[in-house]
Write a structure and sequence with these properties.
The protein is of the alpha+beta class. The chain is about 40% helix and about 15% strand. The protein folds into 3 domains: about 180 residues, no CATH class; about 100 residues, Chitinase A, domain 3 (Roll); about 140 residues, Chitinase A, domain 3 (Roll). The protein starts with 9 loop residues before the first helix and ends in a 6-residue tail after the last helix.
Length: about 500
């Protein structure tokens, strides 16, 4: 079994992220106010220390742009952007970063697997020698989000044990009946449709279009005279084509045929025959021979045609190679073997989440033109044009610098807060002027040509919401709009929490 992406769970990637930050932040005054030996959770018979969670939180609280710890307001806003509170993020970190390695090692032990102690001991010894004395080693661990070596060592051991554990747990690729039934049911909606047979005439130099169409018309005449469809197909289908005897073309979900073929088949009931269907390379006469649909959306394995079953089940072993471990890790995260204690008061990363709510009293919104198209709401993908002015009238940015427009998800924190709040309720075709105070823009630090504490003015036109241009572009629509991926446990915490550049 090869290493899959599921091997690189958040535990491992978060280490790299913490090292990338390269800066240890911890408030010594607050450290002295709490018991850093307190137990945050118990996993089987192993304690997860509150200290580990606190140090790990410190790595997430570093501003990636400045390398400095975030103040309470910035931290609260980042938590809110990530759909977390201090309590929920603490639980997430306990489960993903510290409990999972313990459970992996415990489950491996139960199966008689020996951890790679010698490999990990050698790895840690090499790291310690490269880093320096005990004090430097302790600082290194804290920079990575660990209070001491114990949790770090468990993490490295668990990383090495994942593959042998998965191989031991799933020694056979043979699916169980329950897995077969679940897989069939989940894929049944994708294979519904019709089965067909066809007379297929290849258009070529030897058989030009006129002759191919004439052959198709001949086939129709024979069928009208009572000839069997299979016999006609065998007689008139061009030789050398990969067509089954009798013209069987199989189920449409398992074939790759010209669009014209499927359009004609969609109009046929079982037993009906099409007119001559001409494509670029072929002429077809099509007969619908069978149809498979879910009965009121309910799946009945006995009603599924055997050919469809076989095709689906053939893909099951490859699917299970990743799905079984995924389900195993999902079960670990929800396991009642993880007992989390209530969050103590006074932790350095605790913050009043009310600080995340912006003061909008200084945000000035003026609708210059009221739009008549779709309305922009939080979570929508919006496309705008804009011009940004400093207080002296200088243009510091414009959408013409970004392919003529700018597109982002409203309310996702991809832009400054003045935009996320100032564009809510705007309709496609509308034009709006925003005067944004520094606390909702770039604050005390400024950005590029934007000076510190700058009030910014933007002239914005809303072109589209979720690809719908409404009246702003004659109803044209974009295709394949991107959507944000769900926040899943494998995703690196740092990638979710650390801010990106904003407009």
């Amino acid at each position: 079994m090869q290493r899959k992406t599921w091997l690189y769970f958040v535990l491992v990637v978060a280490i790299a992220a913490a090292v990338g930050i390269g800066l240890y932040y911890y408030n010594q005054d607050k450290e002295n106010e709490i018991d850093m030996t307190a137990v945050a959770a118990t996993v089987d018979d192993v304690d997860v220390l509150e200290a580990d969670i606190t140090y790990f939180m410190a790595t997430l609280r570093v501003d990636s742009a400045t390398g400095e710890p975030m103040d309470d307001v910035a931290w609260a806003k980042l938590l809110k952007k990530s759909d977390h509170t201090p309590e929920s993020l603490r639980e997430y970190i306990i489960r993903n970063q510290f409990a999972v390695p313990i459970l992996i090692l415990k489950d491996a032990e139960a199966l008689g697997l020996e951890p790679a102690d010698d490999i990990i001991d050698a790895q840690i010894a090499e790291q310690r020698e490269a880093i320096g004395d005990d004090k430097a080693w302790a600082t290194f661990l804290q920079n990575m989000g660990f209070a001491d070596e114990a949790a770090y060592r468990r993490l490295l051991l668990a990383q090495e044990m994942v593959t042998p554990l998965m191989e031991a747990k799933y020694t056979s690729n043979e699916p169980t009946q329950a897995e077969i039934d679940e897989f069939l049911e989940s894929n049944a909606p994708y294979v519904t449709g019709k089965r067909s047979s066809a007379v297929v005439i290849l258009i070529s130099a030897e058989t030009p279009v006129e002759d191919a169409v004439l052959a198709g018309q001949t086939a129709l005449a024979l069928l009208e005279d009572g000839e069997d469809f299979a016999t006609v197909s065998d007689q008139l289908t061009s030789p050398g084509l990969p067509v089954e005897p009798g013209g069987d073309m199989g189920w449409e979900a398992l074939t790759s045929l010209p669009d014209e073929y499927y359009e004609a088949l969609a109009l046929l009931e079982v037993g009906e025959v099409s007119d001559v269907v001409q494509t670029e390379q072929y002429v077809f006469v099509i007969m619908c021979t069978d149809e498979y649909n879910l009965d009121d959306g309910k799946f009945d394995p006995e009603a599924m045609p055997s050919e469809l079953k076989e095709q689906i089940i053939a893909a099951l072993p490859d699917y299970l190679e990743s799905e079984r471990p995924n389900k195993y890790f999902e079960a670990l995260l929800e396991s009642d073997r993880i007992v989390i204690n209530p969050m103590p008061e006074g932790l350095p990363y605790d913050v009043d989440m009310a600080l995340a709510d912006p003061d909008l009293s200084k945000l000035v919104i003026t609708d210059d033109v009221l739009g008549t198209g779709p309305e922009a709401k939080e979570g929508d993908l919006v496309r705008v044009t804009y011009i940004g002015y400093l207080e002296d009238g200088t243009i510091f940015d414009a959408s013409e610098n970004h392919e003529g427009y700018y597109e982002f998800t409203l309310g996702a924190g991809n832009v400054i807060e003045g935009w996320d709040y100032g564009l809510l309720g705007m309709k496609v075709g509308g034009k709006r002027t925003l005067v944004i105070p520094p606390e909702l823009a770039y604050g005390e630090g400024g950005s590029g040509t934007i000076p510190p504490n700058a009030t910014l003015t933007f002239e914005i036109e809303l072109l589209a919401v979720n690809g719908d241009f409404g009246v702003a572009n004659n109803g044209d629509k974009t295709a394949d709009l991107p959507f944000l991926a769900p926040f899943v446990w494998q995703k690196p915490l740092s990638a979710t929490l650390i801010s990106t550049g904003k407009h």
